[in-house]
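Sanity check. The docking grid for fe (ii) ion depends on where the pocket ends up, so I'm generating a full predicted complex first rather than guessing from homology. Inputs follow.
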Amino acid sequence: MSEGERTRERERPPLKDNPYERVMVWRRELAERNKTGQVVLKPSDRELFISRQGRLHYFLNPFAFKDTPLQSWLCFKHQVVTKSGKHRHQGGIIIYVIDGKGYSVVDDERIDWEKGDLLLLPMKPGGVEHQHFNLQPGKPAWWIAFISIPIIEHLASEMQQVEVSPDFKG
Ligand SMILES: [Fe+2]
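Predicted complex below; grid placement will be based on this.
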């Protein structure tokens, strides 16, 4: 854009709001977040909290944190002290084991994992029911999940809580 065009844009009166302009605003904000948003997230930037599914620590969550780039990703750590809640949703999810040793029960099959492993939740008709267990009493296991929200949308994936984590007191 030339300097003359920029000047004309600055001088233009505000555009009347309409659905097209909302898209323009959204796209401008998206570009701005990607250009200037926080790209290193420290654990201390977020709080660990106890949900029905267990102890979670989100880095990326566009429903809670709207100021980061990559608003189409969920990325969170899960601390498994004894066992998580149990829920069902579609797979297509990558889980990296940061620390500890445990296993997940995925559709009644036990799958063992330990620090350094990558666990994949595959896609299946109706999704996958799963629950995570720690095998080392006194040493919580930690893993981190990376979930693409467009995959959830395109698969019309529901999420159903089947069992609540024993850590949850709500
Ligand atoms: Fe899950």
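Relevant for the grid: Residues 87, 89, 130 surround fe (ii) ion (CB under 6 Å).
Also worth noting: The radius of gyration is 21 Å.
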